[in-house]
Amino acid sequence: MPFLGQDWRSPGQSWVKTADGWKRCTATSTKLQRSAQSNKCSNGLALNCDCGNLFNSLNYDVAAKKRKKDIMNCKTKTHYFHQEKWIYVHKGSTKERHGYCTLGEAFNRLDFSTAILDSRRFNYVVRLLELIAKSQLTSLSGIAQKNFMNILEKVVLKVLEDQQNIRLIRELLQTLYTSLCTLVQRVGKSVLVGNINMWVYRMETILHWQQQLNNIQITRPAFKGLTFTDLPLCLQLNIMQRLSDGRDLVSLGQAAPDLHTLSEDRQLWKRLCQYHFSERQIRKRLILSDKGQLDWKKMYFKLIRCYPRKEQYGDTLQLCRHCHILSWKGTDHPCTANNPESCSVSLSPQDFINLFKF
């Protein structure tokens, strides 16, 4: 059975004894060494030349790898994106599998850089970035922290180009900046990987991104056809019922006086409260208006300060409970179950974080 981890016993590697001690070499180097040893009987001079070339090539490969690693460590914007569609989540080391699957490893290996380009997965990735920035940033490895900043940069550039989801990214940047201020001022030297000056530079970059988002001016399209306010009132109200965030309703009501009247509809806010919160939570936060009726709008904004809202995403990550493989929804993986679809369970961003808490 082949070894799946980076183990020195895995096929393709062996150890050779040199004057400086035992060294690891690949299968190709071993073949060259064996061919050099076979030529020793016929030509001793050729043996010395081949051995010298062999060890020179080994030293050259080691130096090249070291230079490549140094360049990657120096360049903070080096992209470290993988294109894996699924990964195996294992929480222990065995003879067949080496090491643990951590949050940073999953964040590096899964294809999040392409996921942000998909409108069904964009909000999911942004919410995941926000949870990591809030409490899990210090648990990531150095490469994972660098990858986090690279993906965040791609998210900001996409929002600046499309001029959509501006408020969502503002909240993400504010959460990240607040966490970094706490870490840098207090215990940053012990939990953040890399030079502290590099993180200060990244904080300045975050402030620059926030300024760019604040300077966005959304231009009115040149289309002169039918607009939202030209629709019948029943259709306008039906569209408003599809909004799951009360702040979107408030913003929509500020666009026109007629929309403001519709955005204050009691049934609209009642449905919004019942969608996000349970009956027990609603009963604990009852607010009466001056007319003696329930003020559902004030109750909604009070409830979101006390309880988490219901999250809904177009596409999510899924975990197969049979083979412990993590993948995006709709991605085929080598499952051995008779009915793979029944074994998959959707993970919210918080469930994804909790999956790697040992």
The percent range for strand residues is 5-15%
Tally of DSSP β-strands: 6
Structural class: alpha+beta
Percent of residues in helices: 55-70%
Mean pLDDT: 77
- N-to-C order of helices and strands: EEHHEHHHHHHHHHHHHEEHEH
Strand order of the largest sheet: 3-5-4-6
Query: What overall geometry do the principal axes of the alpha carbons give?
Result: globular
Oligomer: single chain
Q: Rounded to an integer, what's the Rg over CA atoms?
A: 28 Å
Number of helices: 16
Poorly predicted ranges (pLDDT <50, ≥5 residues)?
1-6, 38-52, 74-81
Largest sheet: 4 strands, antiparallel
Termini separation comes to 28 Å
Describe this structure in words.
With 358 residues, the chain is of the alpha+beta class. The strands form 2 sheets. A 4-stranded antiparallel β-sheet has the order 3-5-4-6. It has a two-stranded antiparallel ribbon with strand order 1-2. It is globular, with a radius of gyration of 28 Å. The two termini are 28 Å apart. 16% of the residues are buried. The N terminus is likely disordered.
Name some characteristics of this structure.
358 residues; two-stranded antiparallel ribbon
What topology does this entry show?
Blueprint: E1 13-18, E2 21-26, H1 27-38, H2 44-74, E3 86-88, H3 103-109, H4 112-115, H5 119-136, H6 142-162, H7 166-191, H8 196-214, H9 233-240, H10 246-253, H11 257-263, H12 266-276, H13 279-284, H14 296-306, E4 317-320, E5 325-328, H15 340-343, E6 344-347, H16 349-354
Antiparallel strand pairs: 1-2, 3-5, 4-5, 4-6
Helix pairs in contact: 1-2, 3-6, 5-7, 6-8, 7-8, 10-11, 12-14
